[in-house]
UniProtKB/TrEMBL annotation:
The chain crosses the membrane at residues 41-58, 70-91, 97-120. It comes from Tenacibaculum geojense. This is DUF423 domain-containing protein. Keywords: Membrane, Transmembrane, Transmembrane helix. Its main location: membrane. The keyword Cell inner membrane does not apply. PANTHER family: TRANSMEMBRANE PROTEIN 256 (PTHR43461).
Length: 126
């Protein structure tokens, strides 16, 4: 449980740091469109950091379900937000990694679907 909480807290802290960096340092460098993309990455990261904290603390998930959800949400954030950060912070051309961002988005959708399926399955048990 604490490992999963740590991942959520780390993602949250990093989102705040990157959001502040984007708001102050990058706004002078990036176009408005690029800054909006960067802010989307930060927003998705912070939303899913909160979800990870929920997953780690919700008693309705089995340990295996919690681990699976943590893995899916974490992978989705790393692929989705991480690919956007790579483009704007590391200067990796978007044309070289264009497929990673939507792949990360799809992993996040799958994570939400898995969570939904768990809730429906648990609802039927009661």
């Amino acid at each position: 449980m604490y490992k999963n909480l740590t991942i959520g807290a780390a993602f949250g802290m990093l989102a705040v740091v990157l959001g502040a960096f984007g708001a102050h340092a990058l706004k002078k460098i990036l176009t408005l469109e690029a800054l909006n993309s960067f802010e989307t990455a930060v927003r998705y990261q912070i939303y899913h950091a909160i979800v990870l904290l929920f997953v780690a603390s919700f008693k309705g998930f089995s340990p295996k379900q919690s681990r699976s959800l943590t893995l899916l949400f974490s992978l989705g954030v790393v692929l989705f937000s991480g690919s956007i950060y790579a483009i704007y912070l590391l200067g990796i051309p978007a044309k070289n990694i264009w497929f990673i961002t939507p792949l990360g988005g799809m992993v996040l959708v799958v994570a939400w679907l898995v969570m939904l399926a768990i809730f429906f399955k648990n609802r039927e048990k009661k």
